[in-house]
Design brief:
Order of helices and strands: HHHEEEEEE
Strand content: 15-25%
Strand order of the largest sheet: 2-3-5-6
Low-confidence stretches: 1-28
Distance between the termini: 98 Å
Radius of gyration: 31 Å
Helix content: 25-40%
Number of helices: 3
Oligomer: single chain
Mean pLDDT: 81
Length: 186
């Protein structure tokens, strides 16, 4: 009787064994667990819009307060904006200090429109908004309280970006404010 062996016989035997074991259920069956789905930070777009609106109202109130004082203390701004926006605003307020100016009257807004809501991989949220900023009643005054307001449009179309912190993610900070380059829809 001739004995079969060698690489071809071994390969064939291993292949058959693997094929047979593939048909037999494993005694330790692993059942995949369903992936946990992240709960949205905001239950609706309306809730995200309301949070952004509240944050912008707080931001404008703080900004008006700081500008009225001649930018002597910019700390009220920190509660309402990211480090990036605070740095940008601080530079603008430094100009008031250098020129010894302050403001009177308040900036207000209208047409607060949701652009987008994005949930980021770290659980934070980015909210984009279109807004019309009304600066008609905000006047720039010199150190003698003379009106030195430059000629400017009364309504500015802005694109705002808010970001959330991780805790609580529903608390939004203004991260970017820029003039909307499209048609002036204000």
């Amino acid at each position: 009787m001739r004995k079969r062996g060698g690489p071809v016989g071994t390969t064939l035997a291993v292949s058959i064994a693997l094929a047979l074991t593939a048909c037999v259920p494993s005694p330790h069956t692993v059942t995949p667990t369903p992936e946990a789905t992240a709960t949205p930070v905001f239950a609706s777009d309306a809730q995200a819009l309301a949070a952004a609106k509240a944050a912008y109202e707080g931001y404008l109130a703080a900004s008006n307060l700081v500008a009225h004082s001649g930018a002597k203390d910019t700390s009220p701004m920190r509660r309402w904006e990211s480090a990036r926006q605070y740095s940008k605003d601080s530079k603008s307020f430094e100009e008031l200090i250098i020129r010894r100016e302050h403001t009177s009257g308040n900036s207000t807004f209208s047409r607060f429109t949701l652009q987008r809501v994005e949930t980021n991989s770290d659980g934070t949220v980015t909210v984009g908004i279109y807004v019309c900023l009304n600066i008609e009643k905000a006047r720039v005054l010199d150190q003698h309280d003379r009106d030195v307001t430059p000629h400017r449009p009364e309504l500015l179309p802005l694109q705002l970006t808010f970001i959330s912190g991780v805790m609580p993610p529903t608390s939004l900070l203004l991260d970017r404010s820029q003039v909307w380059p499209g048609n002036n829809s204000c």
